[in-house]
Design goal:
five-stranded mixed beta sheet, 2 domains, Protein-Tyrosine Phosphatase, Chain A, 265 residues, 9 helices
Length: 265
């Protein structure tokens, strides 16, 4: 039988060898007078990456040292991430509070304001600060604040249109005719035109209002509306209802039913 080398007679895990190493470190610590035996857990021997042939005890020792060396940096990293997230949250809150009204509505011209479905507090603000005395509600799913409108002496006009649909040609012509009449009756007031988000149904009425009021074509009216409120549907000018309204508008101008004014934008 082959005789094993004395070093090979130790445990296959290399535990005896590792313990001998610890004894040596202890003796060295006693000779130097430091006595810091525990420091061996974080010395260079523990920080050295073990080879593939290393035993389980060596790998365990290395992982422990890795934990001790990196736990501080993990804590610092978590703190940095926490403060970053909190600051980002605060910035977003400040931005939303400061810009909610910019998203909420946009003035198209001195008469028309295009926006989303308002809250009662926003209605009061519009009435007080923007002189809104007329609300055109395009929502078939929302009846409006009838009691509040009555208290504020605001007139509501309902042109009920299902969500995600373009108003019919009859609804568009009815809405534009009422806007033209109200501009003459209430020259110092504003009209608030809304659907749910202020980008589809109400925007279709707004683009037709621009076509009826100003000397511009379909593309120009679309660009002007996007400039005023960037949320609006970018293809409104290509819908059949808007194109047909524009065609009828040009026919009415040719026979002298009304004229349009230059656009100063």
């Amino acid at each position: 039988m082959q005789r094993l080398h004395p070093e090979q007679q130790h445990s296959s895990l290399g535990i005896s060898k590792a313990l001998n190493e610890e004894v040596r470190l202890l003796q060295e610590g006693e000779r130097t007078g430091t006595g810091q035996v525990r420091k061996s857990l974080t010395d260079n021997n523990f920080k050295r990456v073990p080879t593939k042939e290393a035993n389980i005890f060596t790998w365990t020792r290395f992982m422990i040292s890795l934990y001790y060396n990196k736990v501080y940096f993990i804590k610092v990293f978590i703190i940095i991430i926490f403060y970053f997230v909190m600051n980002l949250y605060i910035i977003c809150i400040i931005y939303l509070v400061g810009c909610q009204y910019v998203w909420f509505f946009n003035r198209v011209d001195q008469y028309i304001i295009l926006g989303a479905l308002p809250t009662p507090s926003q209605i009061k603000r519009l009435h007080k600060e923007e002189k809104v005395d007329v609300v055109i509600n395009m929502c078939s799913e929302f009846p409006g604040y009838e009691k509040l409108y009555k208290e504020l002496n605001i007139t509501q006009i309902r042109l009920e249109t299902p969500d995600f649909c373009i108003p019919s040609l009859d609804s568009i012509e009815s809405g534009i005719n009422q806007i033209v009449a109200l501009k003459q009756q209430l020259p110092k007031s504003s009209i608030y035109l809304h659907c749910k988000a202020g980008r589809g149904r109400s925007a279709a009425i707004a683009i037709c209002y621009l076509l009826r009021t100003y000397q511009m074509d379909l593309s120009q009216s679309q660009q002007m509306l996007l400039k005023k409120r960037h949320q609006v549907d970018k293809d409104l000018c290509q819908t059949d209802e808007v194109r047909l309204f524009y065609k009828n508008t040009l026919s009415d101008i040719e026979i002298g039913r009304y004229t349009r004014e230059p656009c100063n934008e």
